[in-house]
Amino acid sequence: MDKPTALVVFAHHRADSLTAVLARRTADRLEAAGYRVDLLDLHAEGFDPRNRVEDEPDYGDRDKRYSPEVHAHAERLLAADLVAAVFPVWWFGLPALLKGWIDRVWNYGLTYGRREKPMAGKRMLWLGLAGLAEDDPNSDLTRALLDGALRRGISEFCDVTDVHTEALFDSEAKGLEGADRERHYAALLARADVAVDKLLAG
To answer: What percentage of residues in the chain have a pLDDT greater than 70?
Structure first.
């Protein structure tokens, strides 16, 4: 019980996806570093990303009780000393499943809006897998997502100031075969490992 807790959350409908592989790899690396890991597979656990009236924030009542699902997930989030989100970048944004988790769980009175700042002191990593190449003219949109909407707009807004981001480009290894493809994926895994190590270093 003395171990710090790491929440690794990922959103992909295929258990054999690169996203899932990287989430499990991240969890293993954090566990090896001495963390108790809570691996949250949003799809496998059946999380519903759709918002509903009961989960709308009431800015006049920071103690509002939301749905049991939201409070159960908020407890896991707030119990974590470190949070790592591993996800595919789709249309230069979050997949709906992860966006819905943020919308519903990172809610007023739970993660922000309190004098005591419940998320302060946590560390966080946003690890995004993008299908486009790193030298693609639109790769700046992926970096803007990670360093703008996610780092500043979500983490820092909720008082998490130790935030790391990493974009893994060409996640589909387009045009690569055989040994070249294997080397490409090995390089992506290595970059992910470095990102996790930076997170651990603080």
So the answer is: 100
